[in-house]
Amino acid sequence: MSTTDFGFEKVPEEDKVRRVAQVFDSVATRYDLMNDLMSFGLHRLWKRFAVDVSGVHEGERVLDLAGGTGDVAALLVGRVGGAGSVVVADINRSMLGVGRERLDGRGLVGNVTYAQANAERLPFAGASFDCVTMAFGLRNVTHKEAALAETLRVLRSGGRLLVLEFSHVTVAALRPLYDLYSLHGLPLMGRLVAGDADSYRYLAESIRMHPDQETLKGMMEAAGFVHCDYLNHTGGIVAVHRGWKP
Amino acid sequence: MDKKLLEILVCPVCKGPLTYRRAELELVCFGCRLAYPIRDEIPVMLEEEARTLGPDEKRD
Predict the structure, then answer these.
(1) Which of residues 1-60 of B touch A (CB under 8 A)?
(2) Among residues A112, B26, B29, B33, which is most buried (max CB within 10 A)?
(3) Domains recognised in chain B with CATH numbers
(4) How far is A196 from chain B (nearest CA, A)?
(5) Is B9 close to A87, i.e. CB distance below 8 A?
(6) Cβ contacts of residue A195 below 8 Å, gap of 6+?
(7) Helix A13-27 vs helix A197-209: angle between axes, to the nearest 10 degrees?
(8) CB B52, CB B12: distance < 8 Å
(9) In this structure, which topology does domain A3-244 adopt according to CATH?
(10) pTM for this predicted structure
């Protein structure tokens, strides 16, 4: 039986999807509030940075994968305009529901659609998108190589993948404070604010288990992406990885 | 169901074309004999959520 990581826990592979679903069903309605509290609002800056780096522009077709609550999609919708389109895909129905409500509430309805989908088995035809964005979603995927291969498939030749994800702190002085905060402060905050320490512990632990900057770059290259690079932000707490489909 | 989305949706298992059944609110892959539900206007393109077609269900 194959096991995989669920934060620091080892679980049978077939259980990971269900366990992750439980985490996200539980946090969906307070997801944005918790992101603001946990990152002191920095997550908004990180997402804007990723979208800027993506170079998404008018008329493009973009897939926002693991796009859940729609805050990245909201940024993308403005940039692609009426001639472009954004598909928000997420495996979790609760998160997708929150995202649609948010975008509907802002009147962002003309060029955005939604689909419940698994990043490892995407339901889109090849070469359907100019850009795929994935913000804070890749670390929750059981088979990352499968997700990378699928994003390559659905991109047109010359299209690009943007992965925004927690990474490894590169500024040594930051590390002890960051460790203390993420492993102890976050679950405590989760318990006090959302009554759910376990979900926030999973979130903190899954950050630790995620590949570092060079490793993820290597995985993208192995999947067939070219000109791969990454840009650190906030001392390496997060990184934006980019790769192009040849 | 949005027309532009329908144009690019395929079966996640075999990547083959889908038949949209408006009345039943399903997207059918006859190759895999699977029907994916559309719930509250969102297509649920997950194999574990799909219904297996009965032996009498054929292409229109």
Answers:
(1) 2, 4-5, 8-13, 15, 36, 39, 41-47, 49
(2) A112
(3) 3-52 (2.20.25.10)
(4) 28
(5) no
(6) none
(7) 130
(8) no
(9) Rossmann fold (3.40.50)
(10) 0.92
In angstroms, the CA A86 to CA A109 distance is 10
**Residue A210 CB neighbour total at 10 angstroms:** 18
Task: Inspect the interface and report whether the beta carbons of A123 and B11 lie closer than 8 Å.
Answer: yes
Mutation target to probe the A interface, by most A beta carbons within 10 A, among B42, B44, B47, B48 is B42
Domain boundaries, chain A: 3-244
Rounded to whole angstroms, the Cα distance separating A194 from B7 reads 41
What are the tokens at A218?
């290597």
Q: How far is CA A164 from the centre of its chain?
A: 6
| DSSP code per residue over B1-60 | --HHHHHHB--TTT----EEETTTTEEEETTTTEEEEEETTEEB--GGGPEEPPTT----
Instruction: Return the amino acid letter for B27.
Output: L
Helix, strand, or coil here: A233?
strand
